[in-house]
Amino acid sequence: MSRAYQICTNCVMDTSDTNIVFDENGVCDHCKDFNENVKPNWHTDKKGHEELLALVAKIKEEGKGKDFDCILGMSGGVDSSYLLHVAVTQYGLRPLVFHVDGGWNSELAVNNIQVMIDKLGLDLYTEVINWEEMKDFQLAFFKSGVPHLDIPQDHAFVATLYNFADKYKIKYILNGGNISTECVRNPMEYLYYGTDMAQINDIRKKFSTNKMETYPFSPVLRHKFYLRYVKQVQVVKPLNYIPYIKSEALELLKNEYGWTPYPQKHFESRFTKFYEGYWLPERFGFDTRRVQFSSLILTGQMNREEAIEKLKVPAYDPLKIKDEFNYIATKLGISPAELQKYFDMPKKFYWDYKNQKSMFNFGAKALKMLGVEKSIKR
User: Fold this and answer.
1) pLDDT in tens, 282-325
2) Is the pTM value of this prediction over 0.90?
3) Which end of the chain is more exposed for a tag (fewer CB within 10 A), N or C?
4) Is residue 46 part of a domain?
5) Domain assignment present for 378
6) How distant, in Å, are the alpha carbons of 46, 190, 211 from that of 49?
């Protein structure tokens, strides 16, 4: 029996998240998680600033005599771009700027990276993923019928960065992940773990045709535990220690660098723009903007009424979506009719394939006990 529609009275998460729970006042468990687990442990005041200064001092000390004291993965989106600005101009860090080209860069992304690199006088290292392997990997996920189509791209980004840091003994990875705009987590039924190798291997075994000889795989235990606790490679999220207001960051980047904003978070990748803007809401009925807007509501950067109005308009342009659909199909080497077949096929989810969810659940609980993770992912 289908569940009656309900939307949170505090944010804009609703029953498109099928596991959402509401209290007697109609407030959802995402809001409860933020208020009980995240907000009390999130310090962007003097305490947070002092903690960040201590981290920066440690990074600088360990980086003495080296060309770089840290590595920063940059997509060209607002979070990583603002982090780069802060790290260099406010804290004097010397990052190697690292970019992974998965084959779907938008012109905006390339330009945004370049204008910042040029003005800050930094080095940019770009790793290009083998397109034939990426294409085959992405097609395998389309053929599988699951919603989490971004895994081939996201896994490459994470694995390449960690592999590079390990190879060249870089101990600190600066990450633009942040509570301010990401405190509400995407439901796992739609955006599943990107490093579940049991799932990846099962889908590849069933649907891939390429041996993937150069694609950079990285099992979760390798980068979450081995690299972190044995090799001492540490991920640092500086934006969690300072006030980070998205609208102010956008204005600064535009004025200081001639940086160009995107219509939506994660749209620096043309594939992600199509996937999150069209495929996910139209095929699975889940709009990632609900998560993004709810995060901004909880951190005081957007009011609920504004979010509701924005959600009435689709994330994609109805007049251009046919051309975009055809572009995606052509780049993947298939016909629009074949891509439409994948859109219309029966829906599958992560539980329809082999997975390591129990291991991930155990790891999440352990990281929460250690204080590494604050929010709950479900």
Assistant:
1) 999 999 999 999 999 999 999 999 999 999 999 999 999 999 99
2) yes
3) N
4) yes
5) no
6) 5, 35, 47
